[in-house]
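Practice problem 4.
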């Protein structure tokens, strides 16, 4: 039986990927590669002119792996995250998330994928102002039918949010708000955590604290983590650092 709220350690995931019949996999299918992108392209139209933003992006991300993506402003980092999350549709290429080909899904299918398998964190914390910290943490997991009180309790402890549960977003600091947003994104036990400049609104020390907590939680859950950042310093603290340039990942 699997302990730990249904999460598997990296070692278990390695084992699982080699042994498809192993009973440990009760949470969801856990291939070693959580995200596989091939030849992804996206072109926007601006004032009637095509803007070729992504020109054949390839990317593989493993369970438990923490990857930073940097690139100059306008290079297409947010566009790539939006395509992976199914918030927009690609023009060509494939995105495979575990056993699901995202690029073949309908709008409704992509919404379901986001709900069930993807955690999203943005620069703006996007908490619901009328909900307490406790409710902000739990509501997405409740909506998704994936609420696990023991896991949310663990998230509260690990993120140091215990004394803040009854407060409202406007009553806590930016760093605390981002910790709530990360907890909310992980409360559903996603396969993949996507973060677009999650520390962009935080001072340097707070940014390092928040990212350290996120790194630990990703290791704990075994989900994949792809973070867009402008900070080369923070990028260097993750397992891999990729750069988006001229529509491709180097
Ligand atoms: N909906 C859209 N319509 C037209 N052009 C768009 C659209 N979304 C993005 N773009 C263009 O695509 C390019 C990439 O934008 P994107 O937001 O992905 O860049 P980014 O790397 O995230 O930049 P930043 O670091 O400033 O956040 C830019 O030239 C942008 O103007
Ligand atoms: Mg961006």
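Answer key:
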């Amino acid at each position: 039986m699997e302990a730990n709220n249904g999460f598997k350690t990296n070692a278990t995931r390695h084992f699982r990927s080699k042994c498809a019949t192993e009973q440990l996999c009760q949470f969801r299918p856990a291939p070693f590669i959580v995200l596989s992108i091939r030849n992804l392209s996206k072109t926007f139209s601006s004032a009637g002119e095509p803007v070729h933003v992504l020109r054949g992006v390839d990317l593989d991300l493993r369970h438990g792996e923490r990857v930073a993506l940097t690139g100059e402003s306008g290079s297409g980092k947010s566009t790539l995250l939006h395509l992976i999350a199914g918030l927009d549709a690609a023009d060509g290429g494939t995105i495979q998330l575990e056993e699901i080909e995202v690029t073949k899904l309908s709008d409704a299918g992509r919404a379901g994928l986001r709900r069930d398998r993807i955690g999203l964190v943005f620069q703006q914390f996007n908490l619901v102002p009328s909900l307490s910290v406790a409710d902000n943490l739990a509501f997405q997991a409740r909506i998704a039918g994936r609420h696990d009180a023991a896991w949310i309790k663990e998230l509260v402890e690990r993120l140091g949010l215990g004394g803040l549960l009854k407060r409202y977003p406007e009553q806590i600091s930016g760093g605390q708000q981002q910790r709530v947003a990360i907890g909310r994104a992980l409360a559903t036990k996603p396969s993949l955590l996507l973060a677009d400049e999650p520390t962009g609104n935080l001072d340097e020390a707070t940014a390092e604290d928040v990212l350290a907590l996120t790194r630990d939680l990703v290791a704990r859950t075994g989900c994949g983590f792809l973070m867009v950042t402008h900070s080369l310093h923070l990028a260097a603290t993750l397992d891999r650092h990729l750069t988006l340039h001229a529509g491709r990942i180097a």
